Amino acid sequence: MTSPSNNNPADRRRFLFAALGGGAAIAMGGLSAIRLFGSKGSAMAAATPVAASAPSLLLECFADDDGHNLGPCDVRKLVLTDAQWHQRLSDEAFNVMRRAGTEMAFSGPHEKPDSKGLYRCAGCDTALFDASTQFDSGTGWPSFWRPIAKQNVIETRDTSYGMVRTAVSCAGCDSHLGHVFDDGPAPTGLRYCMNSVAMRFVAFRVS
């Protein structure tokens, strides 16, 4: 992600945004033409078509260069078969995101990054968290006191393993991300405890 080029997905997003008049079709998390992740071990790969019957969503979009809010995006939820998800995700990410698993504590990047940036879904690229809301929870998982936009995540009641918790998933593709707890810092008092493999960090290019 350096200078603009035809091979740069972020630049393609900005081009489409301008071409469509800044309208709702530019989704950084759901638009099939801008899907970024592909086969295992590949950061950027060929797009996978979204199922024609996938529901339309209204998410909030954010720019990669400085994180500014681009406004609401009318996008299609990413709907794939298990085989397609296996192609797109590592085995560990598939277990977490599509089977509601949990990575081992301290097994992935969990420290707050030195640079400003945001976290996107590893499955569909939906913007999830701003690094400015990340804090050290001491748990060994990335923790945040709020999502970047409430409508970009889904919170559901989770009663697995004999516990009552609130599970958090990506609104753009229904992938499991982690859980939210009420023992976080001010100003929300919440701790969004996420799995590292379910997200990727994008450093801002403009400080």
TrEMBL record:
A single GO molecular function term of this UniProt record: peptide-methionine (R)-S-oxide reductase activity
Domain of life (superkingdom): Bacteria
Catalytic reaction annotation: L-methionyl-[protein] + [thioredoxin]-disulfide + H2O = L-methionyl-(R)-S-oxide-[protein] + [thioredoxin]-dithiol
Family matches, as Pfam families: SelR
Ranges where the MsrB domain occurs: 82-204
Enzyme class: oxidoreductase
Enzyme Commission no: 1.8.4.12
PROSITE patterns documented for this protein: MSRB, TAT
Keyword annotations: Oxidoreductase
UniProt cross-references to NCBIfam families, sorted A to Z: peptide-methionine (R)-S-oxide reductase MsrB
Cited PANTHER family: METHIONINE SULFOXIDE REDUCTASE, PEPTIDE-METHIONINE (R)-S-OXIDE REDUCTASE
Listed name of the protein: peptide-methionine (R)-S-oxide reductase
Record gene name: msrB
